[in-house]
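Reopening this ticket.

The earlier resolution said the output was attached, but the attachment link was broken on my side. Pasting everything inline this time so it's all in one place.
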Amino acid sequence: MCTYNGGLYLLEQLESLAVQTRLPDEVVVCDDMSSDETRDIVQAFAAVAPFPVSLHVNETNLGSTKNFEKAIELCDGDVIALSDQDDVWLPKKLQQTVRLLAADAEVGAVFTDAEVVDANLKPLGYRLWSAAKFDQGKQRLVREGKGVDLLINDNYATGSTMVFRAKYKELLLPIPYLKDCIHDGWIALLIAAVSRLKFIAEPLMLYRQHPGQQIGAKQDCEPADVRENNRENTLDSLLAATTRQTSFDRDIHKCRLVVERLTEKSGSFDCRNALAKVKSKLIHFETRDSLPSERLKRLPRVLRELLTLRYHSYSLGFKSAAKDLFL
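Inline output:
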């Protein structure tokens, strides 16, 4: 668990850990220099908790990604469950997720749906997966062992719902800084590259929405890549564009880091298939990003991306190809 000025909701989350039907073996808390009562709450809970609780206070503010990196590194168990400071776990969350890991050695991580609630834990009438648009088609990809195909574009495995095998710490750490991709997106993608993912459609936690949180789940929210693609797909944006503008730096940077990490760890993990897929996406966005200014000279490269189906795998198919040719 990572904390930062979480005193308002923290105790409810800690108490939900203490009533799990399968108790944690340990709780590791990394506090990012809170200035409120957060540390006092953790210490008071540690004194009465039915499991060991260790509190580690950072000397400097690390930010959420590096704080989770530190917390993961400090865990001693075989399975790691990520926890935010402001949610509430339902009693069977840990038992049911860990059970799926224990039942299949090829599964590297398990994630679940969640009930989205307001600051007072009142249900808002929708779930996390509906907000993230993790629909039946995307769920099918995960069931078929094609998690990389899905997660290479967007993350649907929210960290606070996830448990994963600690043996993957070597692969995951250090966690890089990535725009629009925090620690859970990196963790889910890298684990999907070397193992299978499973999910539980039942909501096993209450995902609290409140003004002070870093990441939320509004009902009309969309993953970053979907928002970008929707902008690309709107008639107004196409008509208004007078020059061809690209915004692929984020995708290129992410793919390069994933390729670098998988290549570095290929001696320890079998990631050949995933590496090929990430390299394919990297080629696609590097191609789109570096198209010549003269439209006629773009044609061979656009045709190649169409024939390899990369436009359909990583962009919006013919619509994106048309944009690259004419804008």
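Reporter confirms the inline version is readable. The chain has two domains: 2-208, 234-326. The radius of gyration is 21 Å.
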